[in-house]
Design goal:
Elements (H helix, E strand, L loop, with lengths): L20 H9 L2 H16 L8 E5 L5 H8 L3 E6 L2 H13 L5 E4 L5 H4 L4 E7 L8 H10 L1 E12 L1 H10 L11 H6 L9 H10 L2 E9 L8 H7 L1 H11 L11 E8 L2
Parallel strand pairs: 1-2, 1-4, 2-3, 4-5
Antiparallel strand pairs: 5-7, 6-7
Length: 263
């Protein structure tokens, strides 16, 4: 669970996944949900023609490094940090298995500048903000690591998707955050985030959101038996299509922003 502040652990209430790293590998990244997430990220980078060959990429809270591994395979130079030593070990194993270089450090988002000084062409921050006690305080720190003209790939747990899912499960007074039991067990993000507020904060920091996608806006709201009947491939295709369209993208379990720094 959460640990006191130091260079490796972040603030007292930020979530460290040492205790459930291997479970994440089984229950998220090796499932259709995790595969859909990677497909969506891959499509967004391809659609916007973001240069990757020799690009300097900083993956903050990169965990097991699944998407960074894809970028490394396209010539990007990856630096990755996470507060979880267990997650970092899994990332190092994956990069080693692919014979790809990785510059990795155990550190928190709040301390990333000490371990990775300077600015980067691309900064990744995926499924991290919602686990922080003060998510909006992290946005200027992320901004500082992006070169002018560079890109921030920001994925976060979506408030609207969270609330709609709760309503569909019978909780007609949908809470704005996870219940205390799930927070303590580490199974649900602490702070679902409003994408409009995130976009406004990024604009204030000099970014323009060039891609706004909802991830799992179809998958999570379709009954499992229907998904099994029509095939995961068709579910993924629908999710990738409707995830770029209003109003459906607002119901995604996650939102992905690709934002370019203007100044």
């Amino acid at each position: 669970m959460s640990t006191p502040t130091d260079s490796a652990n972040g603030s007292r209430s930020d979530r460290n996944f040492d205790d459930i790293a291997k479970r994440f590998a089984r229950t998220i990244y090796a499932t259709p949900k995790g595969q859909l997430r990677l497909l969506a990220l891959e499509q967004d980078f391809a659609d916007l023609n973001i240069p990757l060959n020799e690009a300097e990429v900083l993956d903050i809270g990169g965990g097991q490094g699944q998407f960074s591994l894809q970028l490394a395979g396209q010539g990007a130079q990856i630096s990755l940090c996470d507060i979880s030593a267990e997650m970092l070990a899994l990332a190092q194993d994956q990069f080693a298995a692919g014979n790809l270089p990785l510059n990795s450090r155990q550190c928190s988002l709040q301390d990333v500048n000490n371990d990775f000084p300077g600015e980067f062409d691309i900064v990744l921050n995926h499924a991290v903000l919602e686990w922080l006690e003060d998510p909006f305080a992290a946005l200027p720190l992320l901004s500082d690591k992006v070169k002018p003209g560079g890109w921030l790939s920001l994925m976060f747990y979506n408030l609207h998707g969270h609330q709609w899912r709760q309503v569909m499960n019978g909780r007609t007074h949908a809470p704005l955050s996870a219940n205390q039991r799930l927070r303590e067990e580490g199974n649900s993000p602490q702070h679902p985030l409003d994408p409009d507020r995130i976009e406004s904060a990024l604009q204030t920091l000099g970014f323009k959101v060039q891609r706004w996608r909802g991830i799992r806006c179809v998958h999570d709201h379709m009954h499992q038996k229907i998904r099994e009947r029509i095939s995961q491939e068709k579910v993924n295709a629908a999710d990738l299509e409707f995830g770029l369209q209003e109003p459906y993208r607002r119901l995604g379990r996650y939102v992905h922003f690709l934002a370019q720094k203007q100044y």
